[in-house]
Every structure is written in structure tokens, then in C-alpha cells.
Amino acid sequence: MAARVLDGTKIAAEIRAEVTGQAKALALSGLRPGLAVVLVGHNPASEVYVRGKVKSSEEVGLYSEQHTPGESATTEELLELIADLNRRDEIDGILVQLPLPAHVDAKKILLAVDPAKDVDGFHPMNVGYLSTQRPGLVPCTPAGVMEILKRSAIPVAGQEAVVIGRSDIVGKPVAMLLLNQNATVTVCHSKTRDLPEVCRRADILVAAIGRAGMVTRDYVKSGATVIDVGINRITDRKEFERFFPGNQAGNKKREETFLARGSTLVGDVHPEVAEIAGAITPVPGGVGPLTIAMLMANTVKAAMLRRGLKQPELSQV
Ligand code: NDP
Fold first, then answer.
1. Active site residues
2. How many CA atoms are closer than 13 Å to the CA of 66, on its beta-carbon side?
3. How much distance in Å is there from the Cα of 308 to the middle of ligand 1?
4. pLDDT digits over 66-87, tens only?
């Protein structure tokens, strides 16, 4: 039987509606949570992401501003900008869009962000809060993964969870969140032996690898929940055929888009996994939409935590 498709677009819309309600309630007491996005230089992908973040902030009723220092901005100049944003009370969230130009000391910049305004949850202080189960700001994509599980009524406590990937941005925080919710967690990476065998233990399998369609059906236990964090662009016709064979129903529309655009987005999980999994997130339309929704939720959360107000009622935020 085909897997249940976990609709990230719908879940993200629910969260954005909740955040809009929270922003409205705060507005009654004269508070408008504010997000500052810092985009250095002209990376086209980053420009698209930042536009999405600013647009979404406006839609949910947050204040937002963009800072766009040029490609040649120095570490010192950026540190000054961050210090200024740290000082301004109307700014609750500071997001430095990565990657930064190579000559900038990215670690120094991220460390300079006030942990109370670190809506990306990357500051070592927030990493520590997460690993010691204290209230803090949790990275957006991992928090989104947990919202998908929760809102799809997929149990976590006591379940075997396997995470493929150990990055600071996705793999490690996802593993920590699953552990904090009492899953039995295994974290895999490029040196893991017998990866498919380890993955087949999973009741919940999270793929955060960055390799198109690497997770095939032999990685998946029948009935498992598969969360695909990967976002990979494929442009090669043969590669497209490997994902979406022309003779299979439902692939026609995808093929038309691929031919028109010359590319399509796929996850780390091969579509054949849907034949064996119990539930699966699609790409696009799975984890992706949750990332911006959780950024909105984190900005409201930061505004409330900074002022000692009670936290909003989103599960992981
Ligand atoms: P990284 O490149 O930082 O980490 C990838 C991880 O996968 C590493 O831990 C690496 O292992 C592991 N890995 C790579 N190859 C293999 C392999 N053959 N077998 C087992 N493990 C392997 O990527 P990110 O964590 O930043 O991102 C992962 C994916 O998620 C990407 O596709 C990215 O685009 C996507 N992403 C999606 C987001 C969203 O909003 N949906 C947000 C952020 C990322 P090792 O540590 O040993 O090198």
C-alpha cells in the first residue's frame, strides 16, 4: 500500500496561521516582534530565500528589515552591524543568511549574535540549551521536522529513530530533538558501516544528506515514517528518468515541468520508497515549507522569551 503523504505545505500554513494569531495578540499590548535579515553580497539562491523570509514576516504581521552589505563587507563591519541589531530593542530576531563570503569569519559573526535573538538557533548557547532541555531557540528545519511528526500524530517516544546526516544545521539538532522526546536515536554519517541495515531498524527515518535519491527501498522498514530533508536540483535527463520513469502514472506533470524549466527538485529519498513506507514527506512540499514557518514562530518566541512572557503554544518552538 502506498505511504501516507505528509503535507508540509498544509502544516506550514497551519503554523503560520497560529503565528499570525500570536502576533495579533501581542499587538494588543503594543508589541510587534521584529526580524532583521542580513544578506551579504549577491548569492542568487540566498536572495530568493531572504525574499521569502521577508515576505512571510509581513504576511504573519511581524516587523522585518533587510540589511544588504556588499560582497566586500569585512568581518569587522559585519560585527558592527550585528552589535547594532543586538542593541535595538525592536529587533527580536537576527538572521544572518549563509553562506557568507569566504573572506568573512562566519563563526565569529554567528557567535556575535545575541543568543536571545538567535532565531536560527545556531549559537553555541542555544545548542547547549537544546542538549540540556532548557528553553531556547531551536534551529528552524529540525523544529519543522518535529512539527510534521506531531501534527501527523506519529508517535516518537520509545520509537527507533535513525538520522542520516550529522550537520550542526540539521542532523545533530534533529537527533537531539528526537532524543528529548524519548526516541531511541542512531545518528549515521559518511563513515557509517552497513548504512542500509542500520536504517532498516528505523520506525522514523530522517534523511539529511544532500544526495539525490540515495535512500532507496532497501534502506526502509515496511511501514516506517520517512522524513526527507534533502533538497537537490537535478538537471540531467537520465537522472530524471531514474526518479520518475516515464511509464509510471503521475509522473507526466513532473516531466512537463522538468522539460520547461530544465531542472526539478528532489529529495535524498527515492520516490520508490513511497511503495514501502508507512508515511513520507514529499519534495518539494514536505520539510521545506516548514523552515520559514518555524522562523516566524521563533521570532515570536524570541520576542516573548526576551520579555519574560509565557511561551507560545507550538510544540517544539
Ligand atoms: P551537510 O552537507 O552539512 O551534511 C550532510 C551530512 O550527510 C553529513 O553529516 C555527511 O556525513 C552525511 N553524508 C554525506 N554523504 C553520505 C553518505 N554517502 N552516506 C551517509 N552519510 C552521508 O548538509 P546539511 O545538513 O546542511 O543539509 C542536508 C540536506 O538537507 C541538503 O540536501 C540540504 O539542501 C537540505 N536542507 C534542507 C533544508 C530545508 O529547509 N528543507 C534546510 C537545510 C538543509 P559526514 O559528516 O561524515 O560528512
1. 53, 97, 120
2. 18
3. 36
4. 999 999 999 999 999 999 999 9
